[in-house]
Amino acid sequence: MIAILAVTLGAAIGAPMRYLVDRWVTSRTLGASGSAPFPWGLLTVNVIGSAIAGPVLALTTGDLRTFLLIGFCGAFTTYSGFGLEVNRIWSISRPVFWSALIVMPVACTGAFLITYNMANWIGQ
């Protein structure tokens, strides 16, 4: 029961933060057409969430890990948003589509691995 509460509370914080950060970054990266061809807001939240997940996985256990990793990071990052954005971009620009399709997973995986390994190194 505590784990469900931890996930619920983490998600209740992570999801609105994702929305606010995404909208803030997106509003600052709009082009002349009023839309951003590359999903900079989505990239930002996913990289930040992945960077947070690294040390959380390396340094926490139990309910705190559940709260931060599954609840907060799970709600702060969004794979469904990634799918939606690359689908939207496909009809706008194939080069931007391919950029997003490659950059997003590489950047997120890189952010996770860097912070996870740094946390393990510091924690030793």
Shape summary: globular
**Number of DSSP strand runs:** 0
What is the helix content? Answer: over 70%
N to C succession of SSEs: HHHHH
Portion of residues in beta strands equals: under 5%
How far from one another are the termini?
A: 32 Å
Question: How many distinct helices?
Answer: 5
- Return the domain count: 1
Given helix and strand content, the structural type is: mainly alpha
Uncertain parts: none
Largest beta-sheet details: none
Q: Averaged pLDDT, please?
A: 93
Radius of gyration: 16 Å
Structure notes:
The protein is built from five helices and no strands. The mean pLDDT is 93. The chain has helices spanning 2-28, 40-59, 62-76, 79-90, 94-123. The protein is globular. 28% of the residues are buried.
Write a concise keyword list for the protein shown above.
124 residues, mainly alpha
Please summarize what this structure is:
The chain contains 5 helices and no strands. The protein has 124 residues and is an all-alpha fold.
Topology:
Blueprint: H1 2-28, H2 40-59, H3 62-76, H4 79-90, H5 94-123
